[in-house]
Write the structure tokens for this entry.
Amino acid sequence: MSTLLVSVRSPEEAQTAVRGGAGIIDVKEPSEGPLGMAPAHTIHKILNTIKESKVVSAALGDLKDWDNSSTDLRFSGLDFVKIGLGGERKTDWRVRLERLRRTLATDKARFILVVYADNSQANSPPAEEVLNWAAEMQYRGVLIDTWRKDGKWLCNWLSLKELSRLRSLAGEHNLLFALAGSLSVERIRLLKEISPDIFGVRGAACGKGLREGKIELEAVKHLAAEVQLSIPNSLAPTFFLGSSAR
């Protein structure tokens, strides 16, 4: 089964995404980059608005964004958080990632590591290296996304064959497997044979397909219909957090 994740930047956009059929509401600030973190007050407002009915995630930016941060923010109300590894190809990212997780008091079952398909552009670790670490540390899953938002999409960087291989590897390790990266209805249709757990969108859910635009109800409806969301809301937290309480 697959479900639709829609990235939103306000409580109003979150409500629109819910009405359109999104299964996961992801809080993100698109003007701050591919994984731009929204202000803490925005995250909490959205949680207070829709938490009772939907799974809620949030983008935390790239690991390097936290190196000089002294924040003591806590995100215990989120079902999961996503963090990228841009600029980390030859660093001690594993050690620093665990340090950040402990600082945020976020358990491993809620951590989604972001694999940049265009890792040569992002200077990030290759997909299999990140996926294997997520499995070893028993994180909840991985998201394959694009770092540079320049008109190219996921399959400009990774073939369907390679995505299928990564999906199988994630399944072997009981990791959630999500796909994003300038997806549209047509591109989701092409990727459905891979059967990811999650399809993530922002631009395709906005007016004129612009990621810094505003979420539109009809756009979300079309995307949700293509993904064919089939997980009852009451079961969604169990499905995404896992029944094994990792």
Summary: The chain has a mean pLDDT of 87. The radius of gyration is 16 Å. The first helix runs from residue 11 to 20. The beta strands are 3-8, 24-27, 55-62, 80-84, 111-116, 141-145, 176-179, 198-201.
